Amino acid sequence: xxxxxxPFLDKAAPEAWDLLGEVRRAVAEQxxxxxxxxxxxxLMYLRISQLxxxxxxxxxxxxxxxxxxxxxxxxxxxxxxxxxxxxxAVERVALLLGETVTTLPEPMVRDRDLMTARDAxxxxxxxxxxxxAVLMTTYNRLSVLSNHAVPGAR
Length: 154
Prior knowledge:
single chain, mainly alpha, AhpD-like, 8 helices, 73% helix, CMD-like
């Protein structure tokens, strides 16, 4: 018996997809207003996509991070960012925030990490990056569940 492929959720519910796009635009405005560097965002998005196992988004955000100016050593060392000297203080806090939002560790660890990020970034940048991490995880889930193919994949 031939199994039908799963639907692309963005195609199956275009109204919901369009509304998610509106949220994305609002979050992008928050990041711009807070002065979050594009490289910092793309590194966080790439790390979140790695953690969520989203091949489509890993490919996309790897290319975007490089295009935004992320050096090769940062992209290569992203999975071991905690032990790498290649990341500045803001990038480290953004990566910590992204990992915390994605993995949701136990409440005491989660609260500690989120407070560390908030204290380092300030309220506006913290809220912008936290929304960005939530949104990236949402996009990862949609892409994984829709079996989005990596462009140019064999």
